[in-house]
Amino acid sequence: MPAIRHRRKHSGFRADRDALCFLSKCVNIRAYTVCLKDEKKTMTITSPVQIENEPQSNESRRLAAEFISKGHKTYTPTQLVIQHAQGVYLWNPEERRFIDFTSGVLVANLGHDHPYFEERYRRYVKGLPRTAYNTLTELEVRAARRLIENLDNEKMQCVLWADSGATGVIKAIQAAQRHQPDKHIILATRSGFHSTKGLAGNVTGEQSRNPNVRWLSFPMVMDKGQASNLEWSPAVLIPKVVAELDALKREYPDQICMLITEPYLGARGAFHPPKSYLRQLNDWCNENGVTFILDEVQSCHGRTGSMYAFQTYGLDPDLVVLGKGLGNGEPVTAVAGRADILDALDYGEAHDSYSGNPRACAAILAVLDTFEKCPILENCRQMSAIIEEGLYRLTADFEFATYVRGEGLVWGLEVDSYGGKTAGEIANECVLECYRHGLHLMAPLAGNVLRIAPPLVITESEAKAGLQLMYQAFEQIAKMGKTQE
Questions:
Q1: 341-377 pLDDT, tens per residue?
Q2: Domains along the chain with CATH numbers
Q3: pTM for this one?
Q4: What is the DSSP letter of 453?
Q5: Using CA atoms, how far apart are residues 251 and 199, in angstroms rounded to an integer?
């Protein structure tokens, strides 16, 4: 593993703001404005992305800007228009092919149009209605039972359906509150992302409008190569964690209802904690009668190399929120866990129109069928080593590529300022230059971290091809940086 070059930190907003200046030069944005809203300093883009030699795609982008609220999307410097997809590949209307290193924001774990998944899905949904509100289908019962069996943990006893990650987190919090109504304090780990909506938004970030939320520190290991450093060892880390938890316990005696965290901080910039940290949170909750909620909306179904991240980290949460890969693109979320907690909600208290619908349940079953038939987890673990090696090659050869963080097939590559440009400008330039070379990436996390999260079915040749495209894109950025020095 190459030596780690230490770089100065950049604020996410500064990186994002500076990136807009870069975009105006490189993506032919006709006009843009920046407005600051409260402490979040939100950016508003008023004109669509327009990329050279993409007439059909540009027209779709233009019409989207006219008829679809910008609040529905997160901003990216490429805004790829997808015409069709297969496996790990995406094609735009101009028939350019892209390797997908996003899995549609960690959703398409089985890739796009997986033949076995699609065949099983069609069989399950045949003849069934699209909705089954206030009724039952045998498919729903089978999906619930098989999911609980697959979770294979004594605390995983029943499920509560939801139709999005946000709704799943909200229902988990509501169930925990109803289970212990005399306790009102909610502990959440800092810098997590559970959603921007409702109760889930209350436990996102580092500040909350909810007066009952209190924050816990989350270990920010800058590079995977630093994970073995003394400061992250159990002997040093755990006493600090226990001290922080016990201080809150003394301040709020018999008032702490739940603790919610993610296995790793994705949106904050791909920070993966030592296993001992999450295990200590889990143990403290068990010892103190606090409901431990693990938000696995993006980490479930193989993303970390195990079927569930709680298995990767050796945890036994009271409630786990599953989403994204659970349905491989079909909108479905499930809260699984202790029956005494979930059943604290009475009839109608967690209902909605679409949760547990037949197509969602068909997707759950088809996903489980595919994992049982195909060596998805084994492939994920094998490809993980290839991705890690490829990312460290970038940090070794390019000055602006600094830190590598991740596991399984969810990685982050942090970039720094270079050639007179800020970290945010360089990060967005990386996304755009990768696009030009035929590699699809999401917008940078936290302003200057590139997320690498291909479908779990990616082959060795596809993974290496994608990494080589990244390398070629970085070479181009390096050349442009030298000319500007």
A1: 999 999 999 988 999 999 999 999 999 999 999 999 9
A2: 64-113+376-483 (3.90.1150.10), 128-373 (3.40.640.10)
A3: 0.91
A4: -
A5: 23
